[in-house]
């Protein structure tokens, strides 16, 4: 392989030689020269103005004395070597000729070479510079001029950095992909039985579920080259570039067979054809056509596996998903509680943890988190521990990191009036009391009136994953009442005319859940088990743009009436519970006014009337507390009573 340092040294030497030749040429021509004939030189010799004459082949170089009309002159003669005799023939006296110094120069090859170089090296330098720039432009780091070349990045499988041990929470997906690894390692095992390995594997899942990581793990386990490219890197503004890049990518893959080609976000180029407006997506469709042709062109012994990832499988072209192309679909769902615990175990590997860290509790506290969220949570916990000058990452940092990831940093620097603090305390206490008083209510994990992010207060629930997937009607009604507990508490304590805007987000969530119960989940006794409304979605936009009403105005009125009935019933239930538990409502609110935060232990003790355990000591202040306060103070200032309470909703809500 060509050494880049040797190539650069050669270029530098070439540049220096060219500059030297140019300087020599410029220096040689810096003294002004005048061309004279022999008779004119003879006249100057008679006048005593000539100091020296240099004879070089057919050229005479005349050096004049100071005060002469010329400084340097040249004259050409067929036989310059007989110049003294020719001057004598022109009448120059012996005395004048004797006063002139005569110098005869022998022909110099170096001089001729320098003259030649002075004319040729600049051209060579320009040509070499252009060639050098073109070579650089075709390198792997700069492909500005190589439009038709694939931009895929190749990773060799000699030293794998990611294996299946680094992927957790997707055991079923790993089992599906382990067959790919076995085929790449032992293809004879399948060929003997007449089995054909899938040509393409489509990884489908929400963002952050580990699609790219799993594809790299397949390459690491198999120990084969891994080509990685994004779907958006195929398409350019120039027509035909995308198809050319596809051809180049598959040619490289065949040369490095067996290997894996990973196309991330394939929906950027694989969307359904014919969905463009006015033919504006012809270039993308040509690229997709080339992908389809190349995948069909693979032989059975090519040993090239195409792995693609997307979070929008519904908009892909059907020809891309048919058997023979991407004929295996692997779904990466959000991990359950056991999967999240395993993912926490992967990301805390190698980090100094305190003995009080409980990964199972952290898994219960993070419903809906994917692998990327958990990785971010562990990283935030490490940053908090470093900020607090701790040597170990404790459970407190983990819990604070979860809240920081979900809602943002605490805004302790925000100044709240006593009226705002009291309203917020009763509002959050109302949520917690109503949830705790119902048999189907979610367990309360934490209640606080400290502003965090854009939220003025927070009531945090522990939710079972099973409830997240299959929520019952009684469970949803309990959640509706819990959502309205804050509004009901304000009405009970401060009267209906003194209610604030703090329940704005609660009302949005209540209305959304109640309407879905009626129109999506068939939980209306009057309308029955029916779904109303159909979502309209345009493929080329890739998102929902509206909802088509497939029901009459009369049914719409009934839907509104059912939604209103569910919300009103939940509101009345919340008010009834709070009137019955008014003493506990006041007790929890007063505790929040004094301590700002009630963890699960403190809240349960208040509910049961037991001695309240002391709150956790505050974390040590960072070295620059003022800087931290300034960092959090720049958050957008919102009303303290308009906090968003994170209430879990069932899948699809």
Based on helices, strands and strand pairing, what is the structural class?
alpha/beta
Amount of beta strand: 5-15%
Number of strands: 16
Largest sheet: 6 strands, mixed
- Low-confidence stretches are 139-145, 538-543, 624-653
Task: Write the CATH architecture name of the largest domain.
Answer: Up-down Bundle
CATH superfamily of the largest domain: Peptidase M41
Shape: elongated
Average pLDDT, all residues: 76
Spatial strand order of the main sheet? 6-8-9-10-7-11
Rg over CA atoms: 42 Å
Give a short summary of the structure.
The protein is an alpha/beta fold. It is built from 24 helices and 16 strands. The radius of gyration is 42 Å and the shape is elongated.
Protein topology:
Blueprint: H1 4-28, E1 34-35, H2 38-46, E2 50-56, E3 59-64, E4 72-76, H3 83-89, H4 94-98, E5 101-105, H5 109-137, E6 153-155, H6 171-185, H7 187-191, E7 200-205, H8 211-222, E8 226-230, H9 241-255, E9 259-264, H10 282-296, E10 304-310, H11 318-321, E11 328-332, H12 337-347, H13 359-364, H14 371-387, H15 395-407, H16 418-437, E12 444-448, E13 458-461, H17 465-469, H18 473-483, H19 485-494, H20 504-519, E14 534-538, E15 543-548, H21 553-580, H22 582-595, E16 597-599, H23 600-608, H24 625-633
Parallel strand pairs: 1-4, 2-5, 7-10, 7-11, 8-9, 9-10
Antiparallel strand pairs: 2-3, 3-4, 6-8, 12-13, 12-16, 14-15
């Amino acid at each position: 392989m060509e050494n880049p340092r040797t190539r650069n040294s050669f270029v530098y030497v070439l540049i220096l030689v060219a500059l030297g030749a140019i300087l020599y040429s410029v220096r040689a021509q810096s003294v002004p020269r005048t061309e004279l004939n022999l008779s004119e030189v003879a006249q100057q010799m008679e006048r005593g103005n000539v100091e020296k004459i240099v004879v070089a082949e057919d050229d005479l170089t005349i050096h004049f004395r100071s005060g002469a009309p010329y400084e340097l002159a040249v004259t050409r003669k067929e036989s310059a070597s007989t110049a003294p005799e020719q001057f004598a023939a022109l009448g120059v006296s012996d005395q004048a000729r004797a006063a002139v110094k005569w110098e005869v120069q022998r022909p110099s090859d170096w001089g001729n070479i320098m003259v030649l170089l002075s004319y040729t090296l600049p051209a060579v330098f320009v040509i070499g510079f252009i060639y050098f720039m073109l070579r650089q432009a075709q390198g792997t780091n700069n492909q500005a001029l190589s439009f038709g070349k694939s931009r895929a990045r190749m990773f060799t499988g000699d030293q794998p950095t990611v294996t299946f041990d680094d992927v957790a929470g997707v055991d079923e997906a790993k089992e599906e992909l382990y067959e790919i690894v076995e085929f790449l390692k032992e293809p004879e095992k399948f060929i003997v039985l007449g089995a054909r390995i899938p040509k393409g594997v489509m990884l489908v899942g929400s963002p952050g579920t580990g699609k790219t990581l799993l594809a790299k793990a397949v390459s690491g386990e198999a120990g084969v080259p891994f080509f990685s490219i994004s779907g958006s890197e195929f398409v350019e503004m120039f027509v035909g570039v995308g198809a050319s890049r596809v051809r180049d990518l598959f040619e490289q893959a065949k040369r490095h067979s067996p290997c894996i080609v990973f196309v991330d976000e394939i929906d950027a180029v694989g969307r359904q054809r014919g969905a463009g407006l006015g033919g504006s997506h012809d270039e993308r469709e040509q690229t997709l056509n080339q992908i389809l042709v190349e995948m069909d062109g693979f032989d059975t012994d090519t040993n090239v596996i195409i792995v693609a990832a997307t979070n929008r499988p519904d908009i892909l072209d059907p020809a891309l998903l048919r058997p023979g192309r991407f004929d295996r679909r692997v779904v990466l769902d959000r991990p359950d509680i056991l999967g999240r615990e395993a993912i926490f175990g992967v990301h805390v590997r190698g980090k100094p943890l305190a003995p009080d860290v409980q990964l199972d509790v952290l898994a219960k506290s993070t419903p809906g988190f994917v692998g990327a969220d958990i990785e971010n949570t562990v990283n935030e916990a490490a940053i908090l521990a470093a900020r607090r000058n701790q040597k170990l990452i404790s459970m407190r940092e983990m819990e604070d990191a979860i809240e920081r990831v979900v809602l943002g940093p605490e805004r302790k620097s925000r100044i709240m009036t006593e009226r705002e603090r009291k309203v917020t305390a009763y509002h959050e206490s109302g949520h917690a009391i109503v949830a705790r008083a119902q048999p189907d209510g979610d367990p309360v994990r934490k209640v606080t009136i400290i502003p965090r992010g854009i939220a003025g207060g927070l009531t945090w629930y522990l939710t079972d994953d099973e409830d997240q997937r299959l929520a019952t009607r009684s469970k949803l009604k309990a959640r509706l009442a819990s959502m309205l507990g804050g509004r009901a508490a304000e009405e009970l304590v401060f009267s209906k005319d003194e209610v604030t805007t703090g329940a704005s987000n609660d009302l949005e969530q209540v209305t959304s859940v109640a309407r879905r119960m009626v129109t999506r989940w068939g939980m209306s006794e009057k309308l029955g088990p029916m779904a109303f409304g159909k979502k309209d979605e345009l493929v080329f936009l890739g998102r929902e743009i509206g909802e088509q009403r497939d029901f009459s105005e009369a049914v719409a009125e009934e839907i509104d009436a059912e939604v209103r009935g569910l919300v009103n019933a939940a509101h009345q239930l919340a008010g009834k519970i709070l009137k019955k538990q008014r003493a506990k409502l006041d007790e929890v609110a007063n505790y929040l006014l004094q301590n700002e935060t009630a963890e699960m232990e403190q809240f349960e003790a208040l509910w049961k009337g037991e001695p309240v355990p002391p709150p956790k000591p505050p974390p040590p202040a960072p070295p620059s507390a003022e800087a931290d306060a300034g960092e959090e103070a720049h958050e957008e200032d919102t009303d303290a009573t308009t906090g968003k309470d994170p209430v879990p909703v069932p899948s699809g809500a």
